[in-house]
Amino acid sequence: MDGILALAADNLISPIILSFALGLFAALARSDLSVPEAVAKGLSIYLLFAIGFKGGASVARHGADATLLTSLVAGVALSFLLPFVAFALLRLMTRLSATDAAAVAAHYGSISIVTFVAASSVLAARGIGSEGYMVAVAAAMEAPAILSALWLVARAGGRREEDGELMREVLLNGSIVLLVGAFGIGLLTGEEGFRRIASFIDAPFQGVLCLFLLDMGLVAGRGLRGARGVLSAGAFGFGLVMPLAGASAGLAAALALGLSPGGVMLLMTLAASSSYIAVPAAMRVALPDANPSIYLTLSLGVTFPFNLTLGIPIYLALAQAATGG
Amino acid sequence: MDGILALAADNLISPIILSFALGLFAALARSDLSVPEAVAKGLSIYLLFAIGFKGGASVARHGADATLLTSLVAGVALSFLLPFVAFALLRLMTRLSATDAAAVAAHYGSISIVTFVAASSVLAARGIGSEGYMVAVAAAMEAPAILSALWLVARAGGRREEDGELMREVLLNGSIVLLVGAFGIGLLTGEEGFRRIASFIDAPFQGVLCLFLLDMGLVAGRGLRGARGVLSAGAFGFGLVMPLAGASAGLAAALALGLSPGGVMLLMTLAASSSYIAVPAAMRVALPDANPSIYLTLSLGVTFPFNLTLGIPIYLALAQAATGG
Amino acid sequence: MDGILALAADNLISPIILSFALGLFAALARSDLSVPEAVAKGLSIYLLFAIGFKGGASVARHGADATLLTSLVAGVALSFLLPFVAFALLRLMTRLSATDAAAVAAHYGSISIVTFVAASSVLAARGIGSEGYMVAVAAAMEAPAILSALWLVARAGGRREEDGELMREVLLNGSIVLLVGAFGIGLLTGEEGFRRIASFIDAPFQGVLCLFLLDMGLVAGRGLRGARGVLSAGAFGFGLVMPLAGASAGLAAALALGLSPGGVMLLMTLAASSSYIAVPAAMRVALPDANPSIYLTLSLGVTFPFNLTLGIPIYLALAQAATGG
Amino acid sequence: MQMHQAKRVEIIIEAPMEGRLTAALIDAGVTGFTILPVLGGSGRSGLWSREGQVGRSGMVAVICIVRPERVEGLLDAAFRVVERHMGVVCVTDCQVLRAERF
Amino acid sequence: MQMHQAKRVEIIIEAPMEGRLTAALIDAGVTGFTILPVLGGSGRSGLWSREGQVGRSGMVAVICIVRPERVEGLLDAAFRVVERHMGVVCVTDCQVLRAERF
Amino acid sequence: MQMHQAKRVEIIIEAPMEGRLTAALIDAGVTGFTILPVLGGSGRSGLWSREGQVGRSGMVAVICIVRPERVEGLLDAAFRVVERHMGVVCVTDCQVLRAERF
Ligand SMILES: Nc1ncnc2c1ncn2[C@@H]1O[C@H](COP(=O)(O)O)[C@@H](O)[C@H]1O
Ligand SMILES: Nc1ncnc2c1ncn2[C@@H]1O[C@H](COP(=O)(O)O)[C@@H](O)[C@H]1O
Ligand SMILES: Nc1ncnc2c1ncn2[C@@H]1O[C@H](COP(=O)(O)O)[C@@H](O)[C@H]1O
Ligand code: NA
Ligand code: NA
Ligand code: NA
User: Fold this and answer.
1) Average of pLDDT values for B180-193?
2) What is the DSSP string of C37-53?
3) Which of D69, D57, D67, D4 lies closest to D32 in space, CA to CA?
């Protein structure tokens, strides 16, 4: 317990978290500080490219093993199943309509790549290794949750748009393509490729992450400001309980897979995190009647900060305790 | 005198100044070279974050002393008082209306953070240290001048908009929040935080500054091109005299405070520089009848290049002479 | 021959080429991956500034010689003459109208600075030196081809817009001004300037190039997708034959000039490459009846990828064989 | 200058639906349109702003200028896409040069 | 397709005044509007362009579609904000789908 | 609120021609206009999108609000520039506040 607190305190005064807090503060104080949309997108392209490439290069270095495949399968399964957990919890804790609950559930089955990146940074700062292919697992977990959510709505009798395009769009979502593509490039070019562009993708990584989290703080703060009154206490509680439930499922799966302590922590983080790019866009197309304020505020305004500040140290402590690592 | 000339010559052929000159040339020659607005804003976010963070980390390293507080107070006082000097000079040297003169005066009481950054770079290149908290002084000097200007207009009987929002907007201006916030982050995370992101905020700093000054040159050049005939000879003269007046006031204050040679030079530069972000926006809201071409052209087209090329070496030479440093 | 193949294979699995391939794949698969226009422009500003500066600093280091001038003259001559070769080939291989053929020819007389940058990277990765002033030659080759194309249209009786502005616009095109300007800054500030900003313009260069080529792949892929059916087999063939013709002319000129092996390869690459920035804009103004799909698809969709993947290794092998270097 | 009557249809729609709308327009034979970016706005679902967003969020404005007789078909096609989504459809009378383009 | 008469009000205004204008609109009961970015322009105060600017400079275009009976209130509210500032207010007749939204 | 009849002219034109168009407008005495960015579109020369482009490609929308009696001169000037180029010119009736500005 003491370990967790020390870790959390240490985590809280890192430049990354403080940058997020600065953004949050600026938005809540109605400062006009803002990051242009194009710059935010540019930073996210950099982060996806760098994290994908580093993952691929690390697999090239250490070699792939059978766990790569079983991990991918486990990730897909988690993404399929977590929406059902989320939906049940939401039905229990809130009075959201079936459509709204399903839309929220889709977000929590999917993942947040920035939370993943922040968790990787914590591992790196502590010198804890992890499986490079967790990046591929992250990509594999983005989409399946959407199918579960659509199935939940259909079962609840909700009308939903027939749309053959949707799955193609989600699977070829820019962030998935870039992450998997950069992973592939890292895998193919290996050590030699990494050396060539290391001073671009490695050295400035933490700093770019700071600026990106500054922007995430701004977006989250603006969302919270605009959504005052949108979230019931129950919904708010869900935003804190669900990541813990997800992390537990992730822990169980990771131990079954036999991952390293770092890998266990990353899979927990993925399961605990919730989407804020691919899934919101998909929900606007597939479930236009679901209220975007609810799922965006929960995902970006409640769960994302929780994971960033308290969640990640908790998951790391649990992962180390469970693996004895 | 020889020292100043050598310093100025040396300063003039630095990549930073030449980048500014390139932008200026391109705009005057009507090249279509341009930096997208979003990129320029991204570069300025980087510069503010980096300079704020470095200032905070430097205070964390060297410890704060009583001079921090007295310096902040001195900065605020300079920002309040310099508009009166500027207004008097303008009334003497030009035939601008009271409203136009007050709007210009507000710009010269406030500061230009890029001029400050350029001055810091000159210090760094010469290995001259300075007080890290000068960044906080810079932030404190942004806003007070606006109040003085509004008071000047009111006294001159000029109608002015009642607007309670305005001061909140100015004090929570994005650039102030980012500068102070990054300063705080640097202060809290200290040496350890700096080490983590040094390869982002330190190594590429000079290069980013080059690109940013390229853009400043473009903007200044476009302004000069558009404003042909807007400035009288008197106004033009004011754009060269006022920075020297400001720098003298800054020198007096800095000596009274007992700053290091580098710190003296930075306070002189702050007092000599004029705003081109926070104040123009505030003037559009508060003094819409003031002509923006006048204050933008003076601030960006005359005083900014003067400070960048001749001003900074002069202030450094004077600071060194006055402190014997 | 074996050497070329090994070189090509080696070239093909570099991060740069794979990033381009990823963009191409994403666009052809209709992923929504995209680089914002402002970011793409920001990356290109960085690349132009860095390559220009490095060229200038290199000339400052090694000194300029008489070949600088003769090389500039040769570059201008190549740019003037290649459109005639291209026009003749197009008339032979395709049924394009005189206007369309002239517009295409203008692109192939001019150059692609990204292809030049990619070729420089291949040289750098292999530790092969080259004349720093090739950057200036590249700039000199951008515009002359446009005059040749206009002359070709006029001769063919095509109506063309009288437009005194056009040449000024082309010669003061943003990319030319930035490239030449940065070259000048590098030349003036030399070794000392380079040291100051090396960690900005040198260290991350390869990585930035990757992201830029990712975007080029996206743009090329979108173009190819939109232009299905626009190109006849003959036109497509032209897109592969013309760079080889250009490279041969470049080789002859380079040998006559007595350039180093690296310089020979760069001049071949310049002659083989085709414009995608300055010339398309000029053609929209001067030859609005020419179909932009044709010239953009040929230049960006056919010749650019060809040069990037197969062309550059071929030119390097030939340059080394011809100079015995 | 010879002018011709036409209709200007302005559709403000969520960015993730842009592709579906333009596909529906093209299916309905409307091959001329222009897409403008939108910075922010307010409606029944509250205020929003584009700044700092990274996903395909926000809205776009699609402008189509068509001959009067084609407006009905255009609106039918657009309505099927917009129906259950946020957004606004607004038609104005206008006059155009070069009628052969529409 | 059932269309309804409405008014389209387009206000081109300095960016630093955007927040005050939208606040005034909301105060006046106008809760639907869309904000478009502006690249540059020319008016009595000369030419300007957005490129390379870093401050909150430039202009934005605010578009409000309202029922005809609300246009007067809207213009009153807008005018009080715009009055002493640069910018343009322009009203067009238009027709909208889904009148319940306005 | 006192309104005045005016014309709103919207010209969608290739970006490389923007400078020529605004110069022609100013020559013709039209000193008020606003330029909006365009994200993409479709016309007789097919679909295009601005994303990732680096050159001065794409289109812009130029909006001029003028007194009715000046519209003819404006269109003549614009037409000479636009004539052989891609793009669209569309005129709507509108009403403006502050007629002295136009
Ligand atoms: N009356 C209106 N006038 C202009 N734009 C509107 C109007 N109503 C809605 N919009 C735009 O459509 C978006 C979604 O509106 P809504 O579906 O009402 O939430 C808003 O954010 C605005 O950008
Ligand atoms: N007649 C007009 N038509 C369209 N936009 C205009 C017009 N007049 C002014 N504007 C816009 O409003 C801004 C300020 O105009 P002004 O207040 O006349 O300086 C200009 O830069 C244009 O963007
Ligand atoms: N009917 C139309 N309505 C709106 N915009 C159009 C229309 N036709 C063409 N455009 C715009 O003008 C550009 C060029 O059109 P075109 O000359 O037909 O290729 C298109 O890409 C659109 O942005
Ligand atoms: Na999850
Ligand atoms: Na000052
Ligand atoms: Na060429």
Assistant:
1) 94
2) HHHHHHHHHHHHHHHHH
3) D67
User: Is B105 in contact with B87 (CB distance < 8 Å)?
Assistant: yes
CA distances from C18 to B24, C38, C224 (A): 38, 23, 18
What single-letter amino acid sits at A174?
Answer: G
Chain F residues in contact with C292 by the CB 8 A cut-off are: 45
Q: How close D76 gets to chain E, by Cα (Å)? A: 7
Measure CA F44 to chain center.
19
State pLDDT tens for residues B60-91.
988 878 889 999 999 999 999 999 999 999 99
Give the 3-state DSSP-derived string for chain A, with helices as H, strands as E and coil as C: CHHHHHHHHHHHCCHHHHHHHHHHHHHHCCCCCCCCHHHHHHHHHHHHHHHHHHHHHHHHHHCCCHHHHHHHHHHHHHHHHHHHHHHHHHHHHCCCCHHHHHHHHHHHHCCCHHHHHHHHHHHHHHCCCCCCCHHHHHHHCCCHHHHHHHHHHHHCCCCCCCCCHHHHHHHCCHHHHHHHHHHHHHHHHHHHHHHHHHHHHCCCHHHHHHHHHHHHHHHHHHHHHHCCCCCCHHHHHHHHHHHHHHHHHHHHHHHHHCCCHHHHHHHHHHHHCCCCCHHHHHHHHHCCCCCHHHHHHHHHHHHHHHHHHHHHHHHHHHHHHHHCC
Rounded to the nearest angstrom, the minimum Cα separation between B237 and chain E is 24
Q: Find the E21 Cα to ligand 2 centroid distance in Å.
A: 17
The percent helix, strand, coil of chain C (3-state, each to 5) is 80, 0, 20
Residue A78 Cα to ligand 4 midpoint, Å, equals 8
Task: Please indicate whether residue D48, judged by its CB atom, sits closer than 6 Å to ligand 3.
Answer: no
pLDDT exceeds cutoff 90 at B156: no
- CA F51, F54, F60: angle at the middle one, nearest 5? 65
Half-sphere exposure of C283 (CA within 13 A, CB side): 31
Question: Cβ(E48) to ligand 1 under 6 A?
Answer: no
Domains of chain F and CATH, by start: 4-101 (3.30.70.120)
B202 Cβ contact list (under 8 Å, min separation 6):
B50, B54
Question: Does C196 reach chain B within 8 Å, measured CB to CB?
Answer: yes
Position A228 scores a pLDDT of: 75
The one-letter code for the residue type at B212 is F
User: Could A42 and C32 be called an inter-chain contact, meaning their C-beta atoms sit closer than 8 Å?
Assistant: no
The residue ranges of every structural domain in chain A are 2-323
ipTM for the whole complex: 0.94
pTM of the predicted model, to two decimals?
A: 0.95
Distances (CA, A) of E97 to A128, D20, E4: 59, 19, 6
Pocket of ligand 2 (CB under 6 A): E 12, 41-45, 48, 59, 86-88; F 32-34, 63-65, 101-102
* Interchain CB contact of B133 with A (< 8 Å): no
Q: What's the CA angle centered on C49, arms C48 and C55, to 5 degrees?
A: 90
Query: Which DSSP letter does residue C291 get?
Result: -
Q: Is residue A176 within 8 Å of A143, Cβ to Cβ?
A: yes
In chain E, count of helices (H) and strands (E)? Answer: 2, 6
Write out chain E residues lying below 8 Å of F28, CB-based: none
Q: Tokens 């502005």 — which residue?
A: C165
Q: What is the pLDDT of residue A216?
A: 93
Alpha helix locations (H) across C63-173?
66-93, 98-109, 113-126, 134-140, 144-155, 165-171
Atom of ligand 3 nearest to the CA of F40: 23
Q: How many of the other CB atoms lie within 10 Å of CB of F58?
A: 19
Compute the distance between CA of residue B288 and CA of residue B204 in angstroms, rounded to an integer.
39
Q: Quickly name the fold that domain C2-323 has.
A: Na+/H+ antiporter like fold (1.20.1530)
Task: Report yes or no: C247 and C311 within 8 Å, Cβ to Cβ.
Answer: yes
CB A53 within 8 A of CB A132: no
